[in-house]
């Protein structure tokens, strides 16, 4: 694995939860602590949903964590985070339903985009504001 020094603001944010060095793999191992990954996911998109937090009830492990999310439409979901990605495992907080066969999403952005039109709007507006700020910055 190659380490480079760069400004995270210059990188395209396509992974969703590996930008912050605090959440990178531990030195010399490929094991990720999914609770740390889940916290990073929550911090990334909390501004665009009504409520979102890592489950304290469902067990977190090195390979799985659960995230509760309430969209701006007031729909509640429990998400499972694994190496495969994120998926809805229940339609309420702190629940899992083995009968649900929902697809995995590579990023939290893609998952929320599919669940919440309000998320899409808020996220899009935040992106536009950031682009406007960058444009002003480059003109000054």
Automatic annotation (TrEMBL):
InterPro entries on file: GSKIP, GSKIP_dom, GSKIP_dom_sf
Biological process per Gene Ontology, one example term: regulation of canonical Wnt signaling pathway
Any GO MF annotation of the entry: protein kinase A binding
One Pfam assignment: GSKIP_dom
Residue intervals of the GSKIP domain: 34-134
Cellular component terms (Gene Ontology): cytoplasm
Family annotation (Gene3D superfamilies): Hypothetical protein (hspc210)
Transmembrane segments: none
Family: Belongs to the GSKIP family.
Entry protein name: GSKIP protein
Organism of provenance: Motacilla alba
């Amino acid at each position: 694995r190659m380490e480079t020094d760069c400004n995270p603001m210059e990188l395209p944010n396509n992974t969703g939860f590996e930008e912050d060095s605090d959440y990178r793999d531990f030195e010399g191992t490929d094991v990720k602590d999914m609770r740390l990954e889940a916290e990073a996911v929550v911090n990334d998109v909390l501004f665009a949903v009504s409520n979102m937090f890592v489950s304290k009830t469902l067990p977190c492990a090195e390979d799985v964590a659960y995230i509760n999310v309430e969209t701006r439409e007031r729909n509640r979901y429990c998400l499972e985070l694994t190496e495969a990605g994120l998926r809805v495992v229940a339609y309420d907080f702190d629940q899992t339903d083995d009968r649900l066969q929902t697809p995995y999403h590579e990023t939290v952005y893609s998952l929320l985009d599919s669940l919440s039109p309000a998320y899409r709007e808020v996220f899009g507006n935040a992106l536009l504001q950031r682009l406007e700020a960058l444009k002003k910055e480059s003109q000054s």
